[in-house]
């Protein structure tokens, strides 16, 4: 099986009420966004009804995502069997 690895989000970043304490390089912002997307995926895939309460206020929510980020997030859930794709 081919499964999604850690990946690296390298697209546009939609920002909403985001305050960065210091300037980050494009690479650092990409790494940070990749981590945020992984955390959001884990929260969404857990199916926990109380995820809003457990998620830190600075964490991503689905309405924060661009179309490209949604595609990246959905790709995390795919597993391809040998001969597929």
TrEMBL record:
Keyword annotations from UniProtKB, A to Z: Activator, Transcription, Transcription regulation
Q: InterPro entries of this UniProt entry?
A: MYC/MYB_N (IPR025610)
The UniProt record lists the Transcription factor MYC/MYB N-terminal domain at 2-85
The molecule here is called: Transcription factor MYC/MYB N-terminal domain-containing protein
Q: Which organism is it from?
A: Nymphaea colorata (pocket water lily)
């Amino acid at each position: 099986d081919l499964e999604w690895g850690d990946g690296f989000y390298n697209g546009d970043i939609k920002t909403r009420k985001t305050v960065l304490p210091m300037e980050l390089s494009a690479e650092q912002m990409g790494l940070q966004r990749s981590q945020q997307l992984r955390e959001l995926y884990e929260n969404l895939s857990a199916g926990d009804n109380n995820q809003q309460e457990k998620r830190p206020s600075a964490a991503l929510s689905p309405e924060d995502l661009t179309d490209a980020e949604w595609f990246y997030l959905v790709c995390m859930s795919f597993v391809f069997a040998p001969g597929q794709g």
